[in-house]
Amino acid sequence: MNTAVDKNGDDSYFDRLLSYFRSQFSEKIIDFVPFRKSVFLLKTEKNTYMIKGYHIYSRLRLQEAFTATLRKEGFSKTYLFVSPPVKEQLFFEGMHWGCMEYIEPNKIPFSFHSQKNRQEGMELLEQFHLVTSTFEARYRTLIPNAHLLEKWSERFNIFLKNLPFIEYFINESFLSEIVSWANWSLTGMEQNRFFFLKEPFAILHGDVAHHNFLRDFAGRLQLIDFDLISIGPNSLDYLQYANRILPFMDWSFNKLARMKQLQPFLNENAFLFALAFPADIFREWNRIIREKTYTDHTKFKQVMSMTIGQFYLRKQFFDQVKNMVT
């Protein structure tokens, strides 16, 4: 058996958890591998599962119901939760555990480096929205509404509080420019607030990072991990997707404008104001400070590349967007 330790380094917890699953499963466990926090691959003699833990049972139940509804309404490019051969509902040391179908990954992982992948990811997201728009009304009492402006304002304020620390690494002139982009963006978003509340609504994914697109063994692209779903206009997911792919497009507005799913929004001032917001810079600096991972050379190099390495390309992008709004 593969008894790789937990990525968080808690060998004791890993051993206890494995022992618990062994006591619950009627099938012999032959492999147990951590993927990320609270997510494990569990392989028995007959089946392979992804096991995921939730602190709140209702969250697990929501995920089970949501993925089942997705499949029932015609979106098949994701996993389902399944009922494994266990003695009782899995609960261990404050965590409720759900079992998902295992999607065997392709040898070549999905990334945003190629235009083909970026377009395919956008098309899959569009399909997801088309399906969830048909049943979002059923989930309005279960899923929160998306509040992008409030979320980004809070992220920006945390970044401002972290500035005294960040100034040890980044020249003040760069930081001043980045802060000015954010202020301009948030002011424009506030002035056009109605756009971010305008129906029709869909259920939004909320975390369209590359690792939540999985190419399976047969080459089909799948969408996974719905922990951050919310209800709102699909433009909010598209904004996040654009922010994720722009670094791989040299911050080219013209390349972004070729994606037909975005074209209807590029004449909207609110969308353009939001495109200019440096959400990724704030997210990663806040995270690296919160988790105290600035001593991790790889992570620190990534956040510095995002902030300084791409600064001038991003500035050109910002100036172009600002001119379009003006």
UniProtKB/TrEMBL annotation:
User: Which InterPro entries does the protein's record reference?
Assistant: Kinase-like_dom_sf
For this protein, the record's Gene3D superfamilies field holds: 3.90.1200.10
Q: Which domain of life is it from?
A: Bacteria
Protein name from the UniProt record: Aminoglycoside phosphotransferase family protein
What is the organism of origin for this protein? Neobacillus pocheonensis
